[in-house]
Write a structure and sequence with these properties.
By secondary structure, the chain is of the alpha/beta class. The chain has ten helices and 13 strands. It folds into three domains: about 80 residues, Nucleic acid-binding proteins (OB fold (Dihydrolipoamide Acetyltransferase, E2P)); about 170 residues, Rossmann fold (3-Layer(aba) Sandwich); about 60 residues, Ribonucleotide Reductase Protein R1, domain 1 (Orthogonal Bundle). The longest helix is centred in the middle third of the chain and has 22 residues. The N terminus is likely disordered. The structure holds guanosine-5'-diphosphate, magnesium ion (MG) and zinc ion. The site of zinc ion has 8 residues, from helix 9.
């Protein structure tokens, strides 16, 4: 909490009861929010003022974890009896949403103001599916959230799959993404990951079972195991009962754990827009003869040329073609 006001230094008739401040939403329990003035980790309860609730458009939660809010408190310190009142949500730099799978088309903001997303994958156990990874990377690009790929469980398959690991790095580093190899079991790469998280608000996402919770515990053993409690199946078709939470890492930085890859729904994209969110295609597309270009059949397509001579990986290009095809299905 903020420094107590020095009430004693004021004349009695100048005493102002209550104060205002700015803080970050670190938890949403349903009945109230917990705020902290990051990077300090001193939580205090807060509630919404009615009008913000009304402003919340089609999203089921107008205030999300990661939101920067202004608050007012009546007393010296907020308490559950007298919580702080959130008076304003400051404009978000970015956010990720999850669309409900039912027909209501409602969306739920998972987290806001994310500095870095870590997309956790494993080459095996569970076996990686590149088109799924590419879809999540596209989603991050659309949301304006910088993504880093974490290739976890390397202890389990490095001996048998070094070549595949090298290929994986070639594909994704070539596309412009950082790849960090880790093992939550042996601790390999954990220090690198810790550095990448330092002083940032981070989002961990990835298929169930890839080791997100294990990595978070490897980063900070004091964090509670309930980090990974939200399961993807639990979320299907629901949109109001899930609450996300931010966890402080002792070495600096904050993590929001999210459920599997389907956890954040694909955004609505027009066919012509998809290539804009493959950074390496965007780079090459400037040299296409026609604009717009779908990069499929057009003569003088610089993207296809780049695929042919290996500057764009065939795997990424295939994911792109798949997204063009399945476009409608993912809405
Ligand atoms: N060998 C090995 N197993 C791991 C590693 N990371 C996680 N696991 C195991 O994989 C399983 C799933 O891990 P968990 O952290 O729950 O995955 P989450 O669903 O992504 O949160 C657990 O049995 C972990 O012990 C790793 O780096 N190496
Ligand atoms: Mg988990
Ligand atoms: Zn083209």
């Amino acid at each position: 909490m903020t420094e107590p006001r020095k009430l004693l230094s004021l004349q009695p008739d100048q005493v102002i009861m209550g104060k205002t401040g700015t803080a970050t939403v670190v938890r949403n329990t349903g009945s109230h929010f917990m705020l902290s003035e990051l990077p300090r980790w001193e939580l205090f309860p807060a509630v919404l003022r009615g009008k913000i609730r009304l402003k919340g458009s089609e999203s089921t939660n107008p205030v999300a974890v990661g939101d920067h809010v202004r608050y007012e408190i009546q007393d010296e310190e907020a308490s559950f009896e007298h919580p702080a009142v959130i008076t304003e949500v400051i404009d978000r730099s970015n956010y990720v949403i999850r669309k409900s799978t039912n027909l209501s088309r409602q969306s739920h903001v998972i987290a806001a103001n994310i500095d870095q997303a870590f997309i956790v994958v494993s080459m095996y156990f569970p076996e990686i599916k590149l088109p799924f990874l590419d879809r999540i990377l596209v989603t991050c690009e659309v949301y304006g959230v910088p993504a880093t790929i974490v290739l976890n469980k390397v202890d389990m398959y490095r001996d048998i799959a070094q070549e595949q690991i090298d290929d994986f790095r070639r594909i994704y580093e070539g596309a412009g993404y950082r790849v960090i190899e880790t093992s939550a079991r042996t601790g390999e790469g954990v220090e690198t990951l810790r550095e990448a998280c330092r002083d940032k608000v981070c989002l961990f996402s990835g298929e169930s079972g890839v080791g997100k919770s294990s990595l978070i515990k490897a980063l900070d053993p004091s964090l509670s195991p309930k980090v990974g409690r939200i399961s993807e199946t639990h979320l299907q078709g629901k949109h109001t009962t899930t609450f996300y939470e931010m966890y402080p890492i002792c070495s600096g930085g904050f993590i929001v754990d999210t459920p599997g890859l389907r956890g954040f729904g694909l955004v609505d994209l027009e066919k012509e827009e998809i290539a804009l969110y493959f950074p390496e295609m965007l780079r090459e597309a400037q040299n296409c003869r026609f604009a717009p270009c779908t990069h499929t059949h057009e003569p003088g397509c610089a993207v296809k040329e780049a695929v042919d001579d290996g500057r764009i990986s065939a795997e990424r290009y295939n994911s792109y073609l798949g997204m063009l095809e399945e476009d409608k299905k993912f809405r």
